[in-house]
User: Which sequence fits this backbone?
């Protein structure tokens, strides 16, 4: 009720047309961001697994800066880091010109900005530990070859010294880098194992997402209102003057959302354990089960946190349907192709009826192949009958059930 969970570029609630009407929407990116960064109960990072780092400034802040703080020459560290960045992200050797530019930056240049990537990159902590070690080894190699000259002000180096230092600093073995990065267990971290990562070179392993998250949308037509508000200037008010210190308006929405998530269990096990996807059955599935158990509890209790101070948008899911099987997954979103009524009875019960009818039709057309578990509040008996679960359960029990399915 009365929230603004996910805003667009002009501050309005995100929307999606569906079934000939407009619905309020929460993007999958917004949902995943809040789930993976939740720091309370059931947080994914309470598991003993390496974290992923998502940033454009990763190479500067996680590779270069720690080495500079250890006392290594900043110019050499940044040159080595730039060379690693180019090798890892693009598979190529950094140019001599770029290397010399970061060794002897122009007075208007910012060496830290020169290490920013054009887009957000995803690295695991173990990968960054390895890259930082490589950069430090390169600094030691440069020192061994050129001695204390690297401690001098780079602007005092001769043209030949600059050329020679740049040649050594930018030289990293592509083959060794690729082999060693591939050999790191859960190298890209838990984020990437669950939600994937793109890679633009063959050195950094690309990861397909094992967790597929749909955009959530309201089962009914959008319900919005423009909220006019004013902030009182209290010092002005003490003098008896009328007026406010600030006047503005903000959109508020209310809605019952349908959210849909699929977990590719073999791929999740493969991403977490480093095995081939087809070998998932024989792998250790303990961690995968732990991830699923926490994730189900997260997605039912953690919602986006926009406008916390003025709307307190802390809603738990009112129904959870879990299915386990080997068939192609299928969304039940079309249960709400005709928006449910907001006036004829209860929105939740109307959504239950629509979902039960659609699920019954789908089972009638394709047969019932999945195992199911159901938890919910309100009058859920009709939906329970349609799902064939017999009796409803609870979210913790369903989370345990799903985790046991993954663990085998």
Assistant:
């Amino acid at each position: 009720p009365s929230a603004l969970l996910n805003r667009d570029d002009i501050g309005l609630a995100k929307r999606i047309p569906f079934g000939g009407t407009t619905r309020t929407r929460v993007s999958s990116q917004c949902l995943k961001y809040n789930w993976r960064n939740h720091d309370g109960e059931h947080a994914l990072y309470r598991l003993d697994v390496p974290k992923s780092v998502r940033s454009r400034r990763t190479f500067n802040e996680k590779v270069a800066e720690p080495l500079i703080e250890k006392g290594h020459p900043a110019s050499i560290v940044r040159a080595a880091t730039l060379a690693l960045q180019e090798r890892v992200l693009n598979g190529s050797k950094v140019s001599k010109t770029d290397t010399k530019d970061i060794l002897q930056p122009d007075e208007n240049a910012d060496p830290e900005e020169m290490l920013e990537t054009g887009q957000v990159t995803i690295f695991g902590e173990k990968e960054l530990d390895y890259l930082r070690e490589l950069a430090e080894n390169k600094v030691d190699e440069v020192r061994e070859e050129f001695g204390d000259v690297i401690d001098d002000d780079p602007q005092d180096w001769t043209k030949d010294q600059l050329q020679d230092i740049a040649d050594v600093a930018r030289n990293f073995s592509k083959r060794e880098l690729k082999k060693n990065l591939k050999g790191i267990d859960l190298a890209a971290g838990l984020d990437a194992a669950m939600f994937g990562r793109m890679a633009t070179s063959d050195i950094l392993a690309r990861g397909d997402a094992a967790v597929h998250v749909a955009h959530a949308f309201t089962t009914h037509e959008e319900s919005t209102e423009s909220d006019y508000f004013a902030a009182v200037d209290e010092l002005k008010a003490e003098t008896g003057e009328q007026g406010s210190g600030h006047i503005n308006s903000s959109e508020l929405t209310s809605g019952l959302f349908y959210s849909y998530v699929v977990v590719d269990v073999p791929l999740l096990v493969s991403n977490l354990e480093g095995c081939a996807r087809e070998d998932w059955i024989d792998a250790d599935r303990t961690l995968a089960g732990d991830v699923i158990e926490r994730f189900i509890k997260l997605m039912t209790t953690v919602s986006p946190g926009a406008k916390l101070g003025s709307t307190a948008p802390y809603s738990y899911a009112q129904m959870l349907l879990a299915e386990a099987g080997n068939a192609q997954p299928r969304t039940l979103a079309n249960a709400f192709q005709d928006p449910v009524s907001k006036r004829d009875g209860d929105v939740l019960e109307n959504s239950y009826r629509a979902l039960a009818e659609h699920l019954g039709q789908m089972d009638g057309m394709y047969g019932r192949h999945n195992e199911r578990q159901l938890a919910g509040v309100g009058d859920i008996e009709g939906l329970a009958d349609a799902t064939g679960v017999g009796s409803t359960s609870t979210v913790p029990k369903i989370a345990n059930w799903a985790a046991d399915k993954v663990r085998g």
Q: What stands out?
A: DSSP finds 16 helices and twelve strands in the chain. The chain has a mean pLDDT of 91. The longest helix spans residues 125-146.
